[in-house]
Amino acid sequence: MKILSLCDYTRTWGSQYEDEYEVIYVDIQHGQDIRLFKYVDNVHGIIAQPPCDHFAVSGARWWKKKGDEALIEGLQLVDACLRIVISHRPRWWVLENPVGRLRHYIGPPAHTYNPCDYGDPYTKRTCLWGEFTMPQKNPVEPTDGSKMHLVPPGPERKNIRSATPLGFAKAFRAANP
Fold it and tell me: 24 falls in which pLDDT band (50, 70, 90)?
């Protein structure tokens, strides 16, 4: 059985399944374009984390300047993730993206969460779409606040900000074997 971990540059979320499944990582930063992914057999679950560059509300001030081309590029990646879900018909699937304008294109999310709901002491409201079991919460105080806004500019900023909180990744794995 396989788990597809799409757009998972850090492999934090997908790695939670490596003990029991063959995890196939597909990430454009690792040289695999999700838009060109071909069908594989025996897919049990799909984790999709398309880049939020053109969707997250934290970048809203740049949306107009980026124009429609950037939005279309982002939507192509989301569309590719959803095409993979439709063609593989997994037992469960999830698409993750921070709060922002993606809901205008694929509808309202099924759930939202903050990392502090699952043991990571910071906030970053995140949306989830799909067919999955929502994990059991293990809340802690958000003593680090909204630390993602404090990540300094640099070449790894995007990847640091997009990493799945470890507490959530573990809780999700427990709820969606």
Answer: very high
pLDDT at 159: 66
Question: Domain ranges in the chain?
Answer: 2-175
Alpha-carbon distance of 35 to 5, in angstroms, equals 14
pTM above 0.85, yes or no: yes
Those residues with Cβ within 8 angstroms of residue 111's Cβ, 6 or more apart along the chain or in another chain: 127, 128, 134
Predicted confidence (pLDDT) at residue 123 exceeds the cutoff of 70:
yes
Of 52, 86, 47, 48, nearest to 66 by C-alpha is 52
Pick the CATH number of 2-175 from 3.40.50.300, 3.55.40.20, 3.40.50.150, 3.30.429.10: 3.40.50.150
CA distance linking residue 175 with residue 177, whole number of Å? 6
In whole angstroms, how far apart are CA 32 and each of 85, 93, 170?
Answer: 17, 20, 25
